[in-house]
Predict the 3D structure of the following.
Amino acid sequence: MRNKFILTLVIAFAVSACGKKEEPKQEKNIPVIGFVQTVEDETINDARRGFLDALKAGGFDSGKVIVDYKNAQGDNATLNQILDQFIAKKVNLIAANTTVAMVAALSKTKDIPIFMMVAPSPTINNLTEIDSAGRNIRAPKNLSGVYETLTYIDSNLALIKRTFPKAKKIGVIYNSSEINSTNAINRLRALSKQYGFMLEERAISATIDALPAAQSLANAKIDVFFAPPDNVVFNAFETIVKTMNDAKIPIVSSEAGLVKRGAVFGYGADFYQWGYQCGTMAAEFLKEKPDTTGASLRDLGYPLQTVKVRKFVHNDDALARFGLQAPEGSIDVK
């Protein structure tokens, strides 16, 4: 009886040992990127795909780098937890996809390099450093990556004026809680006056408010809706498109991704290429492994860059809906 009991224990132990899987070991020399994204959105995802493709092209495939991707799903508390985790893990760099992610990362660390994308110039967001004499405006020392200027507003208002010569009233929805959005709307206000447009604004702070805001603009009899690069607009774009289509109001956007999703045309940064440009910079940084202790990324050879690839695109289906011809020089986004 005793022998049977011992035999049973031996067999049970053997089965348990066979069924237990060993955790994969992480090699110490493989760099880790903490990739943080604020929301799940098709257009913003294009930037992430570009970033990852650039890493691979630069020699950092899945076996040469660990990309710890986290999405805050629009929640600020979650965003802060994600960044705290990255800092605790001592990641080699943080890739911040959108302005909110970049600003939050900068508030958390002054040491870990941050590579930004899908965000405007740090000057626009007041993220600058000035020396004691009030000179030499500079971005934070640990910030690099790729940014966009506000010139996309100038270009798109000119396109609206040329394509819709009888348009008098432009509608816009923007996120009142984001600095980059409020700065963009200030620019839009000033330029609308120059072009002779009346600007109908609806400020919201959550995606759920987009539908009533869009309906309110439709009731205000706007001639054209302008879709800026704004997180709440990205998240609620299909709702906005349906509302405007039902009201027979065309949408113009500065983002190729939003044109693909239903705007008639637009001129602005290509989000995939935006991410690719940032990913190329990150790959170079990982290759060279510079000592960033107390040093500025700019002085180490990684200054902030403006977006290099912009596109003038149109959506054939959206144009047909409104009986419009493709603007000269534009290409079909599909």
About this structure: Residues 1-26 have pLDDT under 50 and may be disordered. The CA atoms of residues 254 and 268 lie 5 Å apart. Residues 2-19 form the longest helix (18 residues).
